[in-house]
C-alpha cells in the first residue's frame, strides 16, 4: 500500500522540470492512446494518471475508499485493453475493470472520512490520496477545477488543509478549487 503512495509522493516532490509537462488530466476525456504514450515515454506505469482516473471512477460508482491494492491490477488490465482500443476513453475501461476488483470497504484514505489532520499525520502515504481525491472531487462536483493545476494550487490547498485540521480533506478541496 505504502509503495504506491510513496511513488506518487516522489512524483510530487520532483523539481518542476523533472515532472511531466502535463500531469493533471481530464479523466472524463483521457483516451487510451494518451495512457499508452505516457507509459512508453516514461517507461513507468502511469501511477499519477491512474490515481486520478481511479478517484474519478470510484466517485461515479459511489465508492469512497481509495484502495491502493487494486491500482497495479487495474493499471495492468486497462493498459492491455488500451493497446487494443487507442481511441477509447480510459475511464470507461477503468470503470468496467474496477467492477471486477474486490475493493476495500474501509481504509485510512476515504473521501467521506479523511480529515486534514489524518493527512498531516501521514503525509508520505497521503500524497497519493490527494491525487486520487482530486479525481474523486472532479467527478462528484461535475466541475473541471483541480488542485493539481500547478504547484501553487496544490500548495494553496495543502496550506488551507493545514489550517483546518478537523475538516474533511474533500471539503477543503471543494473550497480550494475555483
Brief write-up:
The chain is an all-alpha fold and 178 residues long. Helix content is 60%, strand content 0%. It has one domain.
Write the layout of secondary structure elements.
Layout: H1 2-13, H2 32-42, H3 47-60, H4 71-84, H5 90-99, H6 116-121, H7 123-141, H8 151-162, H9 169-176
Helix pairs in contact: 1-7, 2-4, 3-5, 3-7, 4-5, 7-9, 8-9
Pfam family, one: HdeA
InterPro entries: HNS-dep_expression_A/B (IPR010486)
Signal peptide: 1-20
Could you characterize the architecture of this molecule?
- Helices cover about 60% and strands about 0% of the residues.
- It has about 180 residues and is mainly alpha-helical.
- It has one domain (about 25-175).
- Helix 2 crosses helix 4 (about 70-85), helix 4 (about 70-85) crosses helix 5 and helix 8 (about 150-160) packs across helix 9.
Amino acid at each position: 500500500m505504502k509503495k504506491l503512495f510513496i511513488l506518487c509522493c516522489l512524483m510530487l516532490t520532483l523539481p518542476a522540470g523533472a515532472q511531466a509537462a502535463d500531469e493533471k488530466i481530464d479523466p472524463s476525456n483521457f483516451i487510451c492512446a494518451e495512457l499508452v504514450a505516457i507509459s512508453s515515454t516514461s517507461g513507468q506505469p502511469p501511477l499519477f494518471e491512474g490515481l486520478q482516473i481511479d478517484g474519478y471512477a470510484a466517485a461515479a460508482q459511489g465508492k469512497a475508499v481509495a484502495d491502493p491494492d487494486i491500482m497495479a491490477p487495474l493499471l495492468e488490465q486497462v493498459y492491455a485493453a488500451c493497446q487494443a482500443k487507442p481511441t477509447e476513453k480510459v475511464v470507461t475501461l477503468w470503470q468496467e475493470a474496477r467492477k471486477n476488483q474486490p475493493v476495500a470497504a474501509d481504509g485510512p484514505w476515504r473521501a467521506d472520512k479523511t480529515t486534514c489532520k489524518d493527512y498531516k499525520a501521514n503525509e508520505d502515504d497521503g500524497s497519493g490520496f490527494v491525487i486520487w481525491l482530486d479525481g474523486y472531487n472532479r467527478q462528484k462536483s461535475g466541475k473541471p477545477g483541480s488542485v493539481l493545476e500547478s504547484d501553487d494550487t496544490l500548495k494553496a490547498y495543502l496550506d488551507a488543509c493545514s489550517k483546518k485540521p478537523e475538516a474533511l480533506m474533500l471539503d477543503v478541496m471543494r473550497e480550494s478549487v475555483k
